[in-house]
Amino acid sequence: MTQHFINGRHVAGRSGETMAVLAPATGEEFTRIACGTAEDIDDAVKAARAAYEGAWGRLTAAERGRLIAKLGLKVLDHFDELAKIEAQDTGKPMAQARADIDATARYFEFYGGAADKVHGHIIPFLNGYNVNVIHEPHGVTGHILPWNYPAQMFGRSLTAALAMGNAVVLKPAEEACQTALRLAVLASEVGFPDGAINIVTGRGHEAGAALSAHHGVDFMSFTGSPEVGRMVQHACAEHLIPCTLELGGKSPQIVFDDADFDVAVPIVCKAIVQNTGQTCSAGSRVLVQSHVYDEFMGAVAKEFTKLRAGTPEMDLDCGPVINARQRGRVQSFVDQAREAGIPVIAEGAIAQGVPNGGFYVTPTLFGKVPRGNRLEQEEVFGPVLAAFPFSDEADAIKLANSTEYGLVAAVWTRDGGRQQRVAKKVRAGQVFINGYGAGGGIELPFGGTGKSGHGREKGFAALEEFAVTKTIVHKHG
Ligand code: NAP
Ligand code: MG
C-alpha cells in the first residue's frame, strides 16, 4: 500500500479511498495506491507554493544543480532496486527497465549540471539604458505523466522544471507510479526541501483534472493521449497558463533503395518492439521504395518472426502491455486488419510458460497496408508494425506526412542530398538519418507538431519551456 507524497511526507489522502495496482506480467494485484482528490491536489499545490516561496526558492542555481546531481548518484546507488520496481510495475523486460533507470540517472546528471548554465543576456539599447534579459521559474509546475516510462518521465519532465527553480506537483499514471514515489523519497534523503517535489496518485479524471484546473499552478506539462491532452489544454486555457503536450505519434521509417539494409533491418524491428511498442516515438510505420519492398520486408519478416514476448525475468524482446484494456485495444487493431484482409507478413510469439493472467500480445507485422487505413492513421501503442510501399522521393514525403501526427521520423539512404531534402520536408520534431532513437537522447530537444503536441522537452530546450523570460530596462541616464 502506498500513499501520496506531499510536503516531504507520506500522506494517506483525504478520501481514504484506495485502488489496486496489477503487475502486467501476471495480472495479479501487488499493491494499492491512494486515490487522490481535488483536496489532495490542493494540499500538494499549497506545499509546492510554500517551498517555492521558502527554502526551495531561496537556493541558488548551483545549489539546486548540486541536489539534482546528488539525486542522480542516489539513483545509481539504488539501481537494481529501482529497475525491479519499474519492471514489476510496468511488466517491461529487465534489460529495458535497467536501460530506463540508467536514462533516469542521466537526466539528473544532465539537469544537475545545466541548472547554473542558463544565463541571461544584455541588449545594446538606447544611450543611457541598460537592458538585461533574465530567465525566471514559472513558480509551481504541474506534471501529468503516463505509464510507459514512469522513471524516465520523472527525470525528463520534473527535473528540467526543478533545475529552473520551479516547485513541482506530479500526478503519475494510476497504472505505474511506484518508481516516482520512490524517487521522491530519495530526493528528500539527498536534501531536497519539503514541498519541492509533491506526488498525488490516483485517477486522471479526478486528481489529474484537479491539477490541470488548479489556479495555483503556473505551468502544465502533460504526456499521454491526444484526447486527454486536449482536456488539459482546455483546463489551462481557463486560467490562461501555458502547457506543453507530448501526445504520441505514428512515426515513419523511410527506406530508400540505396539504404544499408543490414543496418536498417534490426533497427526497424527494435523501434517498434522496444517497450512492447508502448513508446510515443515508436517507429510504427515502415515505408519502403517499391522495387526493393519485397527484398527489404523479407529481411524484416525474418527478424520479426524471432521476436518473443515474456515476463520481465525472461528478459525477451517484449513484455506484456500495461493492462487488459490496452491489450484489448492492440488486439482490436490486429483483428480489424486481419478481417479487412491486410496480409500478415510475419508474427513473433508469446513465450511458453508466461502466467495466464498476464497481458501479452503477439508482435505482428502487416503489409502492404492500404493508404488511409486505421493502421496508417492511428497510434496502436503495441508491437504492431505497418508496412507501405512508395514510388519515389516525393511519394515518400507525401506518405510520411499523411497522418495528423508528427513526432519522429527516420530516413534511410546513402544519398547525402536526399538525406537533407527528406529530413527538411518530413513533419516531425526529430529526424534521424540512417539510425533511429538515441538511447534516451537526454540532450536532444524532443517534442511534436500537430496531433503529437507542442513544446519541447529534453536538452536545454526544456529549460526554456520551464522558464519565463523577463526583460529589465534600466534608464540610468
Ligand atoms: P491517458 O489517459 O492520456 O493518460 C495519461 C495521463 O493522463 C495519466 O496520468 C492519466 O491518469 C491522466 N489523465 C487521464 N484523464 C485525465 C483527465 N481528464 N485530466 C487530467 N489527466 C488525466 O493515456 P492512457 O489512457 O494511459 O493511454 C491511452 C493512449 O494514449 C495509448 O493507447 C497511447 O496511444 C497514448 N499514450 C501516449 C503516451 C505518450 O508517451 N505520448 C503515453 C501513454 C499513452 P490515469 O492514471 O487515470 O490514466
Ligand atoms: Mg488512462
Automatic annotation (TrEMBL):
Location of the Aldehyde dehydrogenase domain: 12-472
Keywords per UniProt: Oxidation, Oxidoreductase
Coiled-coil region list: none
Pfam family, any one: Aldedh
Active site: 246
Cited PANTHER family: ALDEHYDE DEHYDROGENASE-RELATED
UniProt-recorded name of the protein: Aldehyde dehydrogenase
Lineage, highest ranks first: Bacteria, Pseudomonadati, Pseudomonadota, Alphaproteobacteria, Hyphomicrobiales
